[in-house]
Specification:
By secondary structure, the protein is mostly beta strands. It has a single domain (20-453), classed as Beta Barrel (Porin), CATH 2.40.160. The protein contains three helices and 21 strands. It has a 14-stranded antiparallel barrel with strand order 1-4-5-6-7-8-9-12-13-16-17-18-19-21. A hairpin with a 2-residue loop joins β16 and β17.
């Protein structure tokens, strides 16, 4: 999610193309002819994870809910490396942009694009099941924008975006990590001593009775945000760009199913006021923010055929402290043990802000053919404490190569390959031993666009 495939490999805060609607609306004012940019990317890759359990766990069939663990209850098989798991993300990211000069100084534009997306599917029984089994999260933005050029050396622009979000996910929810469950078992009439809750130690996690499959489906939500930008051409050879993308809080609401088909929850505590249906269904809302970002870039025509570029970016991923799911159903109400119709499931993230840097070169090979290359770096958002396969991350290396082919004075084709990969990452400091192990991530985006100047 840190290297969006929006527009082409040539697009950016210091590029005057139709994708400036997203990258820098201030640069739209330097577009002299009505322009459409249509295309997208096919994204495919691989995510790998080998979990390493470094803590002490008890046998999963145990009903000992509080520490200490009796020596005979320790599960000696839950130690060291588990079997590796992997996922092959695959998806499409279409884009449509348009820019239309309405005077010598004013250009309007529009865009439909998906700057944030995550599509993964793992083995349902793999070691990662406590974090994620499958997930589809896509944010689509529709943005009208306008740019005004004060004079040749300075223009400003702004856009307003409608954000439509879709989400679906499944995982095995560890009820031993939920505060409400720990409190319900501890208070009368059950009065069962336990160490459950958000800070539960590994010794009382991953028990069979507390391992409840959870699915969220067809979750939709929307929001409004904006972006602004400044572009400057102090000399004919140099274009500078500065842009800001504002944040937006998203709340995706859909349906959920929670498998409670275990005797502990359906039969054993009936006389004490706790009796769940084998399957609980209702509505659920997934909440998280999309971050702010600031980008600054420069493009310089070193020779009539060679353009050099650079871009710096800063994204406030620290806004994402957690993914919060609120599940509501009348089947959750247990008044005798203090359970209401709403359960909260929190996936802590505590992400950190990231920086990005790119350098690029574009070479005009002939009048109708050009090529470009780009290399870049992205710092990681996920800290060791909360990383898992729901947000695999690390120090990312980004590369891009593409070609521009003019079919006529009005139509050009652009094709490219983008790659991003994380450097090898081994984690030993995960909170509660949840995400320790080794992570790998490599993504490829194969893009094709048509640029039509009217």
């Amino acid at each position: 999610m840190t290297a969006p495939t929006v527009g082409t490999g040539l697009s950016g805060p210091a590029t005057a193309d139709a994708a400036a609607v997203y990258w820098n609306p201030g640069a739209l004012a330097y577009i002299e002819r009505p322009t459409l940019l249509l295309g997208g990317h096919i994204i495919v890759g691989h995510i790998g994870y080998t979990r390493e359990r470094r803590a002490t766990y008890q046998r999963p069939d145990s009903l000992n809910f509080a520490l200490p663990i009796a020596p005979e209850s320790v599960d000696s098989t839950k130690t060291g490396s588990a079997q590796s798991v992997g996922a092959t993300p695959f998806g499409a990211a279409p884009t449509l942009f348009g820019a239309f000069p309405i005077s010598k100084r004013v250009v309007v534009g529009f865009g439909i694009y998906a700057p944030f997306a995550a599509l993964v599917s793992f083995d349902e029984g793999g070691a990662q099941k406590w974090a994620i089994q499958r997930a589809t999260i896509v944010m689509v933005q529709a943005t009208p924008a306008i740019s005004y050029r004060f004079h040749d050396a300075l223009s400003v622009g702004a856009g307003v975006s409608y954000v439509l979000g879709y989400g679906a996910m499944s995982k095995v929810q560890d009820f031993g990590a939920i505060d409400d469950v720990g409190r319900a078992l501890a208070r009368p009439p059950i009065s069962q001593n336990n160490s459950f809750g958000a800070n539960a130690p590994p010794g009382v996690r991953e028990l069979n009775s507390m391992a409840r499959p959870f699915e969220l489906e067809n979750a939709l939500g929307h929001g409004i945000t904006f972006n602004v930008g400044i572009a400057s051409r102090p000399t004919p050879k140099l274009l500078l760009g500065l842009s800001y993308q504002h944040s937006v809080d998203m709340a995706l609401t859909g349906t959920f199913r929670l498998n409670m088909n275990d005797d502990f929850f359906t039969k054993d505590l009936v006389s004490q006021g706790m009796a769940f249906k084998p399957e609980v269904a209702g509505t659920a809302t997934l909440r998280f923010p999309l971050p702010r970002s600031l980008r600054i870039a420069a493009a310089y025509d070193a020779t009539p055929k060679l353009r050099l570029g650079t871009q710096l970016g800063y994204t406030t991923w620290s806004q994402v402290e957690a993914f919060d799911v609120s599940a509501r159903s009348p089947d959750l109400v247990m008044p005798k043990v203090g359970l209401s119709d709403t359960a909260h499931i929190v996936l802590p993230r505590r992400w950190q802000d990231t920086v990005a840097i790119d350098v690029s070169a574009r070479l005009q090979l002939t009048k109708s053919l050009a090529g470009w290359v780009l290399a870049g770096y992205r710092s990681p958002a996920s800290p060791d404490a909360t990383i898992d396969v729901a947000s695999p991350d690390g120090n990312r290396i980004v590369a891009n190569a593409g070609v521009w082919l003019a079919l006529s004075q009005n139509v050009a084709l652009l094709g490219e390959v983008k790659m991003q990969t994380i450097l090898p990452r081994t984690v030993v400091g995960s909170d509660y031993d949840l995400g320790n192990g080794t992570y790998s991530l490599t993504l490829f985006a194969f893009g094709g666009h048509v640029e039509w100047k009217l």
